[in-house]
Every structure is written in C-alpha cells, then in structure tokens.
Write a structure and sequence with these properties.
InterPro entries: DHU1, DHU1_N. This is DWD hypersensitive to UV-B 1 N-terminal domain-containing protein. It comes from Gossypium barbadense. Helix content is 48%, strand content 13%. It has 126 residues and is an alpha/beta fold. The chain has one domain. The protein has a three-stranded parallel sheet with strand order 1-2-3. Helix 1 runs antiparallel to helix 2, helix 1 runs antiparallel to helix 3 and helix 3 runs parallel beside helix 4. The chain is globular and about 35 Å long. It starts with a helix and ends with a helix.
C-alpha cells in the first residue's frame, strides 16, 4: 500500500525533531498542495522549492524524498527561483533520491558545479 501524503508530512516533522531543525513551512505547504491535487483526482505533483533551504534542512528532506517512490505522489518538480543556500552535493543527492518520479528540475542558481551538470545531462539522456 502506498504511503499517504499526510504520513510523509508526519515523517518529515518527526525527522526534523530528531535532527533539531525547525520544519520548513514551505515544504509542509507543498505536501498539503499535493494532497489537495490527489483529492481532486488531478496529477499529484509535489513541488520542492529549494529557495532558502539550508544544509541543516537536508537530512529531514532526504528522509522524505527517499520514500516518495513508495508514496501516492505521482511526480516531483524540484525548483529554485533565487539563490540557494543548500550545498550543491546535497541538492544532487535529494534529486537522485526522488528517482523515477522526478519530472522537472528547474534551477536558476548555477553554483551547483560540474558534477551536478554531469548528472543532469545523464538524466536527460535516459
């Protein structure tokens, strides 16, 4: 049985508590929006906005993104509209953890480096 979207929110909040990090309201809002789409029988897309995400936010987000493959979420878009404080390697790990449900990667911040671009090129070619 697929993991319900509210359960992903609970997993995230519990992970934040264990890591001593305040939950990002933007991420919880994105989960809520995905749940609303699911209830309306629309494509259930989770939009992860990396703006203002910091390295301390990484582990709780990773715990959720590694479970997306087993969840009700049908697709994930990873977006970045302004400068990102998240380490490029962390961003890459998050994107890789989404795996087959990754739909769109739109990053405006070019500071992620060559390894990130290599992975992005390899992903596009598949």
């Amino acid at each position: 049985m697929a993991i319900k979207i509210p359960a992903l929110g609970s997993i995230y909040i519990e992970s934040c508590r264990r890591h001593g990090v305040a939950p990002r309201t933007e991420f919880l809002s994105a989960l809520f929006k995905a749940d609303v789409k699911k209830s309306r029988h629309e494509l259930c897309v989770l939009e992860i906005l990396l703006d203002h995400v910091k390295d301390v936010d990484f582990h709780p987000l990773l715990e959720v993104t590694t479970r997306i493959g087993d969840s009700e979420i049908e697709a994930v878009d990873v977006l970045n509209e302004s400068s990102c404080a998240l380490n490029g390697e962390y961003a890459l790990v998050l994107i890789r953890s989404i795996d087959q449900k990754l739909r769109i990667v739109d990053l405006q911040d070019l500071s992620f480096g060559k390894d990130f671009l290599r992975y992005k090129t390899a992903f596009i070619m598949h």
